[in-house]
Here is the input.
Amino acid sequence: MFSHLPDVPESEPPASATAGKKPGAASGELSILTELQFRLYKELHAAAGKLVRPPVRSDTQSPDLARLSAVMKEITGHSETFSVLWQAYSHLANAALADGRVSDRLLAMSGVQHGPGGSLLKRLLRFAAADVPASSAQRFIADFLEIADDETVHATLSQIAGMEWALDPDDAHQIMTMDTTDGVVTDVQEEVRRFRALLHLDADSGTPSGACLASAEYSAWGPLDWHRIQTWRRRYVAAHTANIDWAMTKATVYRKGREPLAPYWHPGGLEAAVVTQLRQEADRAASARLVQITDSVAQMALRRVERRAGRQTTPFDPRHLPSGGRGMLFLDTPFTLPLPTGRRIVGYVWGPWVPALEEGWGRLGAGRDLKPLEIPQGGTPWTWVTPLTCDQSLLSLPFSPYSTLLLRPGDVLEPATRLRDPDHPERHRAGAGRLAREELLIRHVRSLWELLTQHKRSSVHVLAEEVHTAKPRDQRSDRRRGITDAGHVTTVWVDPDAGERYRAQRRGEGGSGYKLKVRYWRGEHERQQCPNPRKHAERLAEGGCTHDEITIPEHPVGPAGAPWSDQVLRARSRRPRSTSVAEEP
Here is the structure.
């Protein structure tokens, strides 16, 4: 049923689960964060125990079966289901670690798992017997809950609860951190204390406890203005420097192994890893130049992505980055990703990044395998990009970080043919996976960057801009918040006269040499431009010359007084903007 999970041999867990295992890592690390999750687990465990002990005649309805069904109906939320499954697996892993006979029984039981959820149960039992790192089991559980229906989840819960009770009926190997008052798990308070210490917050500072990351299907995204963008940057930096709730949310994502790129093996532990990533993101946003992308520029960037989707991208060059390599841009109109996510991207934050080997950075692969990040020697800075989505709200912001993009100098993307809909070439195919979405986001943000910096690499100017400067008192307020940027916001749009200006420029350069007797409109397109024509032949002989993709705006071709052609394929039925030009026939 769950074909996305790799096949597991009968004798050992998959290699991906043991590849990143740390020597001496404890199996079955447990963290149930709420009283509700703890209560649901205990009720499930007790109901399964009652059901396993006495035999029940086939012609009677056991009251314990009804009790088990009632508990299943209460376990509805994704986080509650994950925590209950994770607690049951932790119990099995601790029992196997303490008693070799339990490990043998787990392997024997794994061979007879079939039906709904059997693929997941087989893996969890073998993971528990083999002392596999906790992150591997967490990823399998999270993937299972994303695609399984409620009936399959309930069947899996009842089966693993029965196995758990049968293997350790006295809870001799159950490990929990108990409160001395009401018996609930209090890992949250300890985690909050550690986060406060790492963030250098006193007992009264930081945001109060509560859900600062409020889930919403579609948050409002109205017209932008540069004052609002400045405010959003301030709140974004504050959320990543002094917000306990946001740190706790990130820690939950780490436990489930859902962060694409994170210091999973940080020597300081989970909290130190979260704080490391939050501080670096806050530094990127605090030093970023703010840019507002109007709808005309966003549409031009999308057309550029569409035209180049079937070709390999040019190697990534950091000199194409605007604003000195650090920036934070917002889109007037969100960019919607293909299904099944349907996320709406409203902006990007980027900056140079030099990963430190001692921070233990890891990255999820195509099969959600966690592998150490290969850090090259020399300290060459990479570019870290954080897409922003408006489908969740962080504090009072209409957006929150979504995923992570990592761009290295010289990286190229192959033709994105799998992103195309064969029946509708202008559309993206639904159901693109995570890596396909990352490629689409990289193409999109690179298209925006290259348009913003085209005037630095070519005489073809297609954009116009206006720079807004914050008042001195606002700049001083930003300094107190740790923001090092000057507070300028640049609004960019497509210059409506770009086509006429390009035509005049081409005429001044002598044109192409062809003598035309008609006029027609040449559509928007890209051309290859060598950054150094004098060394083109030399670089071509050495293995290839990398050219820049320059966007040419739509412009008229042909003599000014000539009639408009209705036979050229690229001709369009539109009137010229100048009244001095002859009317169309």
User: Anything to note?
Assistant: The mean pLDDT is 74. DSSP finds 18 helices and 19 strands in the chain.
